[in-house]
């Protein structure tokens, strides 16, 4: 029998939870107040979006012939010494030239401000991009691996086994180094020798994460398939379905439902593990945060923000999977 | 139609066991053969060898003249012609009753959606479950599930039907409804091999009864002879225990 709390005890311990939480936060704030750290939360938003000045410079030498305003923007016509007129469009902003001015190459005719994404936002987008690519490739690898893992064909079975043990038995950080330094050296030199193109660091990061995740997904898929009653395969095969038809129509759909929760855990790990890619110059969220810290020195605020952003990503994924589970469970 | 010659089957796991020894049977088209015997006698293994769910180790099995132990044989094609009904139903729980009956028609027989659905509805009516077409199998009783399983197998228009203890997992009051469907099928001239403990069914419907023990066929013959005047002591003992 489960232990029961009285209503009074229940209220006391529920309140205790919040008190403990508040005390921990207060304790931390108290500690920071003892050192000379000035909180500057105001700088954080500027790392999401910033206002940037954009200057419009003359590309020719000549004379400003006319300045006409057209709606919100302004057109500055510069007549070059060779008689050719070039028009410059300045969106809503500041006009720095006036009619009849002599301009040289590089002179600023006008400037305007534009919203540009800041470091943290760029990093967040990069983290999402890396994660999505890695998850998709990881799922594919995992399904192929999982099916191969229980194949009757020893070549397929042993390959999958080797893959899983090799990847699970070595640190992800080392794998990323291997893909980036050894992989890229090989690939780039081979390309240099035989012609072709270089692969950017981003893709080495994706490959490392996808292959790492694929190994875990392989085991998840294998256990999912094996958890489905043998009778299901026998029924499907006895109707004349092939091995792969039976897997595709009967086994995998049922296995998918069971492996969704461990799969979600794996993908949440992947999002967090993507923070390691900073070491191979992929500017994902963690690396972006570190860069932001070096320019602003607001390390407390930025790292807290960084952590919160990861939490938003992983929690969203977790909610999405819960939704999927409910939808699949209802059918 | 089914020609089994000198078949041996050995299981190696969990420990070595000779499940079938020198089994030779010939079954003609339209014949209803009931296989009986104590548990572990090899009767289910024998049945499962007929559609290659188990692979016989020695001997020859011809289904409509096709050697199913030959590696060059496309076993999926043979299986499409041989329906099987399992003790534990093995319906697909993620598909509705109708989808269960439709799926293999579409995937294996490549029938159009409309054609497959029509065939499914006809068969569900035949087994008396048409009002449950859109229900998922776990919501049905055992007897209903088994009737759906029979409809699913019949939807492939098989030439042979194999029944592996189809009523053993059912509550007593549901056995009748499943046996009735099987009787109808037998009357329509389906070639059937039935592993069962239902002696009433064997007596009433079977053209021939095969008694197996210890992986061998001990005795076979028409039900009258079998139940009234068995020749082997082992058969007598078995019948005296269960009748």
| Count of separate DSSP helical elements of chain B | 9
- How far the N terminus sits from the C terminus of chain B, by CA atoms, comes to 32 Å
Strand content of chain A: 5-15%
The neighbouring-strand order within the major sheet of chain A is 4-3-2-6
Secondary-structure class of chain A: alpha+beta
Residues in helix, % of chain B? 25-40%
Strand content of chain B: 15-25%
Arithmetic mean pLDDT of chain A: 90
Q: What global shape of chain B is seen?
A: globular
Instruction: Please give the number of β-strands of chain A.
Output: 7
Multimeric organization: heterodimer
The largest contact between protein chains, plus residue counts on each side, is: A-B, 19 and 26 residues
Query: Which term fits the overall shape of chain A?
Result: extended
Count, helices of chain A: 9
Main β-sheet of chain A: number of strands, strand sense, barrel status?
4 strands, antiparallel
Order of helices and strands of chain B: EEEHEEHEHHHEHEHEEHH
Major sheet characteristics of chain B: 6 strands, mixed
Q: Terminal Cα separation of chain A, in Å?
A: 33 Å
Based on secondary structure, the structural category of chain B is: alpha/beta
Low-confidence stretches of chain B: none
Can you walk me through this structure?
The complex is a heterodimer of chains A (331) and B (243). Chain A has 331 residues and is an alpha+beta fold. Chain A is 63% helix and 14% strand. Chain A has nine helices and seven strands; from the N terminus they run H-E-E-E-E-E-E-E-H-H-H-H-H-H-H-H. In chain A, the strands form two sheets. Chain A has a four-stranded antiparallel beta sheet with strand order 4-3-2-6, with no helix packed on it. In chain A, strands 1-7-5 form a three-stranded antiparallel beta sheet. The longest helix of chain A has 32 residues, at 299-330. Chain A is extended, with a radius of gyration of 29 Å. Chain A starts with 6 loop residues before the first helix and ends with a helix. Chain B is of the alpha/beta class and 243 residues long. In chain B, the strands form two sheets. A six-stranded mixed beta sheet of chain B has the order 6-7-8-3-9-10, sandwiched between helices. A four-stranded antiparallel beta sheet of chain B has the order 2-1-4-5, covered by helices on one side. The model of chain B has no long low-confidence stretch (mean pLDDT 93). The interface between A and B is medium-sized, with 19 and 26 residues.
């Amino acid at each position: 029998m489960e232990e029961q709390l009285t209503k009074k005890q229940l209220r006391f311990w529920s309140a205790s939870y919040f008190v403990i939480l508040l005390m921990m936060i207060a304790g931390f704030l108290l500690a920071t107040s003892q050192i000379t750290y000035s909180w500057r939360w105001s700088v954080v938003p500027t790392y999401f979006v910033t206002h940037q000045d954009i200057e419009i410079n003359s590309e020719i030498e000549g004379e400003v012939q006319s300045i006409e305003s057209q709606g919100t923007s302004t057109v500055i016509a510069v007549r070059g010494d060779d008689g050719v007129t070039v028009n410059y469009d300045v969106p809503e902003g500041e006009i720095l030239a006036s009619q009849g001015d002599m301009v040289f190459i590089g002179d600023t005719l006008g400037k305007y401000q534009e919203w540009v994404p800041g470091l943290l936002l760029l990093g967040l987008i990069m983290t999402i991009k890396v994660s999505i690519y890695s998850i998709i490739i990881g799922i594919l690898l995992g399904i192929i691996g999982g099916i191969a893992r229980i194949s009757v064909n020893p070549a397929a079975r042993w390959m999958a086994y080797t893959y899983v043990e090799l990847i699970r038995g070595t640190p992800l950080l080392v794998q990323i180094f291997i893909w980036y330094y050894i992989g890229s050296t090989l690939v780039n030199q081979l390309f240099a020798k035989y012609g072709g193109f270089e692969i950017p660091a981003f893709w080495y990061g994706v490959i490392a994460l996808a292959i790492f995740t694929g190994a875990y997904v392989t085991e998840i898929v294998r256990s999912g398939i094996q958890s489905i009653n043998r009778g299901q395969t026998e029924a499907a095969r006895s109707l004349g379905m092939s091995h792969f038809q039976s897997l595709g129509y009967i086994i995998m759909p049922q296995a998918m439902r069971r492996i969704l929760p461990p799969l979600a855990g794996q993908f949440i790990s992947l999002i967090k593990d993507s923070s390691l890619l900073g070491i191979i110059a992929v500017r994902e969220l963690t690396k972006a945060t570190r860069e932001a810290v070096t320019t602003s020195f607001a390390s407390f605020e930025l790292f807290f923000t960084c952590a919160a952003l990861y939490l938003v990503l992983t929690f969203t994924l977790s909610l999405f999977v819960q939704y999927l589970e409910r939808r699949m469970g209802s059918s | 139609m089914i020609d089994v010659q000198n078949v041996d089957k050995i299981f190696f796991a969990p420990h070595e066991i000779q499940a079938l020894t020198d089994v030779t049977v010939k079954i003609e088209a339209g014949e209803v053969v009931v296989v009986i015997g104590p548990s572990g006698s090899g009767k289910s293994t024998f049945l499962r060898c007929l559609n290659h769910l188990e692979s016989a180790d020695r001997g020859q099995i011809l289904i409509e003249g096709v050697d199913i132990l030959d590696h060059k044989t496309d076993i999926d094609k043979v299986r499409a012609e041989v329906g099987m009904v399992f003790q534990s139903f093995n319906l697909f729980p993620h598909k509705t009753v109708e989808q269960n009956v439709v799926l293999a028609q579409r995937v294996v027989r490549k029938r159009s959606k409309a054609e497959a659905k029509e065939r499914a509805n006809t068969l569900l009516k035949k087994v008396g479950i048409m009002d449950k077409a859109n229900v998922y199998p776990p919501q049905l009783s055992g007897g209903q599930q088994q009737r759906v399983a029979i409809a699913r197998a019949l939807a492939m228009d098989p030439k042979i039907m194999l029944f592996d203890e189809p009523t053993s997992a059912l509550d007593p009051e549901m056995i009748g409804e499943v046996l009735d469907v099987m009787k109808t099928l037998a009357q329509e001239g389906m070639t059937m091999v039935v592993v069962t403990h239902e002696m009433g069914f064997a007596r009433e419907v079977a053209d021939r009864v095969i008694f197996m023990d210890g992986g061998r066929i001990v005795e076979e013959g028409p039900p009258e002879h079998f139940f009234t005047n068995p020749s082997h002591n082992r058969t007598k003992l078995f019948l005296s225990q269960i009748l």
